[in-house]
C-alpha cells in the first residue's frame, strides 16, 4: 500500500474506531468507569494523530504542486486577484450610485430652501 492510500486508510480506520466507541457506550450510565474514559481518550488521541497526518499529507501535496507546477499556483493567484478586482469594481459602482443619490437629494434640499427663502425688503 502506498503512503497516500495509507494516510487515508488510517484516518478512515480511526474515524470508524471513534464512532464505534461513541455508539457502544451508553450515555445514560452514570457509573462510567475510568477505563472507558481512558479508552475514549486513546481513540481520540489516535484520531487526532491521523488528522495531523492527513493535514501534513495535504501540505506536502500543495508544496509539491507549487514547486513542480508553478503555473497552477500562478493561475490560482491570478484568478483570486481577478475575483478581488471584480468585487471591488462592483463596490465602486455601488458607491458611485449612492453618491449620485445623495447629491440629488442635497440638490433637492437646496432648491427647496431657495424657494422657501424670504428675501428681506419683499412685501408679501
From TrEMBL:
Keywords: Activator, Coiled coil, Nucleus, Transcription, Transcription regulation
A matching Pfam family: Med28
InterPro entries listed in its UniProt record: Mediator_Med28
Subcellular location: Nucleus
Any one GO cellular component localisation term in the record: mediator complex
Top-level taxon of the source organism: Eukaryota
Family as reported in the entry's similarity comment: Belongs to the Mediator complex subunit 28 family.
Protein name (Swiss-Prot/TrEMBL): Mediator of RNA polymerase II transcription subunit 28
Amino acid at each position: 500500500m502506498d503512503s497516500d492510500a495509507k494516510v487515508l486508510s488510517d484516518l478512515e480506520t480511526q474515524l470508524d474506531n471513534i464512532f464505534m466507541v461513541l455508539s457502544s457506550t451508553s450515555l445514560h450510565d452514570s457509573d462510567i468507569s475510568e477505563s472507558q474514559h481512558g479508552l475514549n481518550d486513546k481513540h481520540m488521541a489516535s484520531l487526532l494523530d491521523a488528522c495531523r497526518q492527513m493535514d501534513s499529507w495535504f501540505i506536502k501535496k500543495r508544496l509539491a504542486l507549487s514547486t513542480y507546477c508553478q503555473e497552477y499556483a500562478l493561475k490560482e493567484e491570478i484568478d483570486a486577484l481577478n475575483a478581488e478586482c471584480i468585487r471591488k469594481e462592483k463596490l465602486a459602482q455601488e458607491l458611485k450610485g449612492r453618491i449620485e443619490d445623495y447629491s440629488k437629494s442635497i440638490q433637492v434640499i437646496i432648491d427647496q430652501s431657495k424657494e422657501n427663502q424670504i428675501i428681506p425688503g419683499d412685501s408679501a
